[in-house]
Amino acid sequence: MKTLVFLRHGETDWNAQGRYQGQTDILLNDAGRVQAKQAARRWSHTEFDAAIVSPLARANETGRIMLGDRDLELVTVEDIKETDGGAWEGLVFTDIAEEWPDEHAAFRLPGLDSGPVGGETPRESGTRTANAVVAALVDADVLVVVSHGNTLRAAAHLLTGRDDEDYATVPRLENCRAHVLQSNTGAFGSFTLTQTSV
Asked: Where are the beta strands (DSSP E) in 28-175?
């Protein structure tokens, strides 16, 4: 049995301000560090074989806090970083909705092929993330993936092999919450979403 724990990073000031972060490298704030410590306690009894993390600082710090003193290397994987936010990065969502009302409405539906102006779609970021995760599972049975809300949601959807129109049924992840997926084979499209937002 292959098990994935998809953990979103802790809170940043931009999260608190309602700003679209995308690939802008924003640090955790104090609340985010507290959330990461809570995640460490929540997952303290889980035996991870491997851990991969986005190169962005907010995910890296979350991963280091969450893993604590475990004898486990936290491997940085470029392909699991957040969705490229294009022209929306750094803007608050109310300004995005005012400047690009149609694109923002399509993005909020959500759909796999509606992304930020000049950025990636969930399908694009989810595909690169899902492929990286499947590759990391070759040598692991229980893998923790510390990354970002948009990419993890899209990757979870793609790994389960659900129909495109079911994308909205995959819950959004709050800061430092996780989705758990399991598969007998670890193959793309073979996973079941067994727990959400834990």
From this structure: 50-53, 74-76, 142-147
Q: Is the pTM of this model over 0.85?
A: yes
Token match 């098990």: residue?
3
Measuring CA to CA, how many Å separate 132 from each of 7, 19, 143?
Answer: 15, 27, 12
The CATH number for 138's domain is 3.40.50.1240
The verdict on residue 113 lying in a domain is no
pLDDT tens sequence across 133-180: 999 999 999 999 999 999 999 999 999 999 999 998 999 999 999 999
State how far the Cα of 182 lies from the Cα of 133, in Å rounded to an integer: 12
| Residue 100 domain flag | no
Q: What's the first-to-final CA gap in the chain, in angstroms?
A: 20
Residues marked as catalytic: 9, 82
Q: What whole-number distance in Å separates Cα of residue 107 and Cα of residue 198?
A: 25
| Contact residues for 44 (Cβ-Cβ < 8 A; gap 6+) | none
Question: What is the domain extent for residue 46?
Answer: 2-85+122-195
- Report whether 113 contacts 124 (CB < 8 A): no
